[in-house]
Write a structure and sequence with these properties.
Blueprint: E1 2-11, H1 17-39, H2 42-45, H3 60-72, E2 84-86, E3 91-96, E4 99-107, E5 110-115, H4 121-131, E6 136-144, E7 150-160, E8 169-173, E9 180-183, E10 189-192, H5 195-213, H6 217-249, E11 252-257, H7 265-277, H8 284-298, E12 302-306, E13 323-324, E14 327-329, E15 336-338, H9 339-348, H10 364-367
Parallel strand pairs: 8-11, 11-12
Antiparallel strand pairs: 1-7, 2-6, 3-4, 4-5, 6-7, 8-9, 9-10, 13-14, 14-15
Helix pairs in contact: 1-3, 5-6, 6-8
Bound molecules: zinc ion (ZN).
């Protein structure tokens, strides 16, 4: 069993003006205290307890966490706002009928219960887990959004099932011409296309340019936030669909590992400017995070495979060819198809030379002496039981990885 920790962001319901005023006052007080603490040398600060703040009208549960937070914040010079936070022992969850509420002490002796707004049934399950103690409580934060809405941020941790042994792999490629492609072991593809999104983003970009000329930076910022929310929503949707597909087919998910691809400064610069101007730029990191999380919750295995050559290899014969935008044509076997689809198939069918390539180390196959009767140049995939890594050579060989699976 693996443990996972997540934060639930739950709006506080039916807050009256008096409560809102009190939360605000306490938050300001808390921030002041934290900033005072930061001026005290660390050696003395670590000795402080909530008793040293008895003269201040704020609950000791908040103060204790604030002391802990300032001790942990090594690089902060000053807090703009430090939300009220308390550890797992100082908040409680209650359920009456279908309504969940949060209990916590505000000031000495004054306790409050605030109902929570629950949007998703998934959250309900987790909260029920807190109530029957299968989910562990962490800290609780009272957090105010920029719009002035108050939320409880509940940190909870729980055991998640070990991933089931997959009966096959769904390959997911972050496409160059499409947003993403998933292909099932039998070769059935699913595409998520850019077209509609491109249209929306084009609209946003034009609006941004107009606002830029008018120097309306605040509005631009709001627009960017809106666009980010849209990207997030779509990433949630795609990751949900991919994980559902994996659950239905009892498969694992394979993604390409882009983290080891080295970039030149020039490329990095380009990527940075892409992020703000290119309509095709997409937050794949976020998509990957969502897939990992949703898969973990559903007991679906996720693997990352090296990205090298996934788009260039022919999915039928493994030969390396150049793609021409969407189109992929193999010069060796004549296969023609969608380039990103081919990549997703190659990712899904990857056979697993899972050790990283370390050229400094002698490869065991390389140093193995040639014995009589042994054939030089045996494809690595046919050398059974050998753990050696040949990395880049594999694509050239007729490895079973790139044969069609039935
Ligand atoms: Zn081919």
């Amino acid at each position: 069993m693996a443990t996972t920790t997540l934060t639930l962001k739950l709006p506080l319901l039916r807050l009256n003006q008096a409560k809102v005023q009190e939360f605000l006052r306490l938050q300001e007080l808390n921030t002041d205290i934290a900033n005072q603490l930061l001026t005290i040398p660390k050696g003395e600060r670590t000795k402080l307890t909530s008793k040293d703040f008895n003269h201040i009208e704020i609950g000791s549960a908040w103060i204790n966490q604030t002391i802990r937070n300032t001790n942990a914040a090594t690089k902060v010079k000053q807090f703009k706002v430090l939300p009220l936070e308390t550890n797992n022992q100082n908040w409680s969850l209650h359920k009456v009928g279908e309504t969940y509420s949060l209990g916590f002490g505000v000031l000495r002796g004054i306790k409050q219960r605030v109902p929570l707004e629950i949007h998703q049934s998934k959250y309900q399950e987790i909260l029920d887990g807190v109530l029957n103690k299968t989910v562990q409580k962490g800290s609780m934060k009272l957090w105010r959004s920029k719009k002035g809405k108050w939320y409880a941020l509940l940190s909870v941790s729980m055991e998640v099932p070990d991933a089931d042994k997959p009966q096959g792999w769904i390959g997911v490629d972050r496409g160059q011409n499409v947003l993403a492609v998933a292909s099932t072991p039998s070769g059935m593809p699913k595409f998520w296309k850019f077209a509609q999104i491109r249209k929306i983003r084009k609209h946003y970009a034009a609006k941004r340019r107009r606002l830029h000329k008018a120097k309306k930076m605040r509005v631009i910022k709001r627009l960017e936030q809106k666009e980010r929310r849209m990207i997030k929503h779509i990433n949630h949707m795609i990751s949900k669909e991919i994980v559902e597909l994996a659950v239905d087919l009892k498969c694992g998910i394979r993604l390409e590992d882009l983290s080891n691809i080295r970039q030149t400064t020039q490329q990095k610069k380009k990527q940075k400017s892409d992020a703000s101007f290119n309509r095709d730029y997409w937050s794949y990191f976020q998509l990957e995070q969502f897939i990992f999380f949703k898969a973990q919750m559903a007991g679906v295995a996720v693997e990352k495979v090296p990205a090298a050559y996934t788009t260039k290899s022919c999915l039928k014969c493994g030969a390396i060819n150049q793609r021409d935008k969407h189109n992929y044509t193999c010069r060796r076997c004549g296969y023609r198809g969608h380039a990103d689809y081919g990549a997703s198939r190659n990712i899904g069918n990857w056979v697993g030379l899972s050790c990283p390539i370390e050229l400094q180390k002698p490869l065991s196959v390389m140093v193995k002496g040639v014995q009589s009767g042994e054939v030089n140049g045996t494809p690595l995939s046919l050398v059974s039981g050998s753990n050696s890594c040949m990395g880049l050579v594999t694509q050239e060989q007729e490895s079973p990885a790139f044969n069609e699976t039935k």
